[in-house]
Amino acid sequence: MAALSGKRVLIIGGTSGFGLEIAKKALSEGADVTAIGRSPEHIESTKSVLEAIVATASNNASVNARAEVVALDATDPQQLTKFVEAIAPFDHVVSMMGGAMGGGFLDNTDDAIRAAVDGKYLTALRIARVVLPHISAGGSLTLTAGAGGRPYNASGAVLGNQALETLVQGLVIESAPRVRVNAVAPWWTPTGLWRSMTPEQLEAQTEQMAAANPLKRLGTIGEVADTYLFLMRNGFMNAETIHVDGGVSAL
User: Fold this and answer.
1) How far out from the chain centre does Cα 67 lie?
2) pLDDT for res 6
3) Rounded CA separation 189/101 (Å)
């Protein structure tokens, strides 16, 4: 717990899914958490959730957690730069931003491929350019890749994920030894990201993905979030992309 107590943590995309769970866990460990999101509905609900955790933590004299929830489009470098410069520095930054592309290279259009590169790789690069100068020495940046897709079954999904792993390794060289850079690559997990699915579609997808996993189940939001916390706490983890996928990457 001491590793995050009193640390300033910025979570980009921290008002739903994995990001919200990371915010909750970091707060519970005494961190000063700032969560960025775009949805007004998510902003308000996240404020309520995090304020409740802060109120509970205030009963513990050894924990002095604080939370702030901000409405911001983090894909806009100008907005993000203005915000970060105003309240920096941070000890740890987590970015949940990233897109995806289904299918293969041959059955996708040029526009779809460009969007996949932009949504995953270039978005992560833009965020890194903005936040890395404002992370305190000894701190970390954790990006989000993905464990989905293999060349033999969904080559398009590999595009952004493998590019992001390469980006992490390059950023490590440019940021060393001041800041560590890592990534988490979750497998398919039922979160709000899939809110466009009908309940029937979500149930069918859940059953299909669980059956395809060596553990014959899906990971939980909490299990994925724990990996981000681990990368923040462990000061010797660097240049790693951790696949939280139940063993799918071995298939």
Assistant:
1) 18
2) 92
3) 16
